[in-house]
Amino acid sequence: MRFAAFDLETAKVLPENVADLKRYAPLGICCAAIALSDKDDVTVWHGVPQLSPDECQSIVHKLRALVDEGYTILTWNGCSFDFFVLGQESGLLDECSALALTHVDLMMYVTFSKGFYLGLDKALQGAGLVGKAKSVTLTDGTVVTDMGGAKVPQMWADGQHDAVLTYLRADVVKLIELARALETSRAMRWVSNSGRPQSVPVPRFLTVRECLRLPEPDTSWMDNPPKRADFTSWMPSTKAKGAKSVRGCLLTTIVTVAVAFGCAVLAFLLDSAVTATPRGEAGPIFSAVIWLSLIAVPLVILNRLTPNARVWRPLRSVLKKLRRRLGRSDKRV
Predict the structure, then answer these.
(1) Which of 255, 136, 251, 111 has its CA nearest to residue 188?
(2) Largest Cα–Cα distance in the chain?
């Protein structure tokens, strides 16, 4: 495959330790870069204090042209962030949405497979590659050894353009190196914060649209797992789908409530009929079976209609543990 790695850096200076940058949009773009897997040159756009809408539109047109030439656009968290920012700054939200859905976002694939975020640096190290550029030299000769994206806006505002562009170029080049490594290893590997080796198979590179069809992993053990909708909520097409999904959820709720009410009435009538029939000591058991069976019906229906709803995850987790214990018991026997 021929890859075109894309990355950008934002221009707006934000407060320290901001978790959700998109809350402060529009963020502006101070610089952006594209690296091609079959060429050594890195194409860079930069502006002071930031890129103009026309310059941002030229980036969109370049990405579109690369796709037409057969390149696969590659990012790390590009669906949720880079294309969102580019769409806002260029005014071409529809075009950026289309590019985002058809490109390969390697971080999104990990998040949708495992249920949590992963940094590019860990993925690079897990692939046996040198990590992200952490050291850059300022104009006065000072060496910054803990360089990161959060430092970029202030450094750009301070005129440290060469340092920022060095950091940006290294990111897109490293992304190409990671893609090449994954083509060979067919697996993304890293070490968790607790020191445990982790991996996810990469039999082929999935587009964002294909990632959206992946089954949701079990994240019941997490306090605040990533929400899939957050990755695409900025897209015009998904906003329309979101409105439809709200109506669908409302309809599902109404149908489920109606079925539950009908089952409760049926259970009451059956229980009354059983109560009126001589049945000895087994009567309470029959009544319990009737009520439990008919109460379970609407739950099964709701589960089938909304299989990915979070409400089912704790139950599935309990059932998994129960199956494991039963499996161990069978092995002991």
Answers:
(1) 111
(2) 96
Average pLDDT over residues 123-142: 94
Tell me the whole-structure pTM to 2 decimals: 0.73
Domain parsing of the chain, residue ranges: 3-234, 247-332
Least confident among 110-124, 208-222, 262-276? 262-276
At which residue do the structure tokens 């039999």 appear? 203
pLDDT at residue 183 is higher than 70: yes
DSSP codes joined into one string, 138-207: -TTS-EESS--GGGHHHHHHTT-HHHHHHHHHHHHHHHHHHHHHHHHH-EEEEE-TTS-EEEEE-SSPPP
Instruction: Specify the DSSP element, H or E, that contains 118.
Output: none
Q: Classify 127 in phi/psi space as left (phi over 0), alpha (psi -120 to 50) or beta.
A: alpha
Q: Which amino acid is at 116?
A: F
The answer to whether 136 and 11 have CB atoms below 8 angstroms apart is no
For residue range 311-321, list pLDDT tens digits in order: 555 665 666 56
The CA-atom distances, in angstroms, between 265 and each of 245, 274, 275, 291 are 30, 14, 15, 10
From 25-34, 35-44, 126-135, 311-320, the region with the lowest mean pLDDT:
311-320
Q: Transcribe 202-222 into DSSP letters.
A: -SSPPPHHHHTTSPPP--TT-
The CATH class that applies to domain 3-234 reads alpha beta
Phi, psi of 4 (to 5 degrees): -130, 100
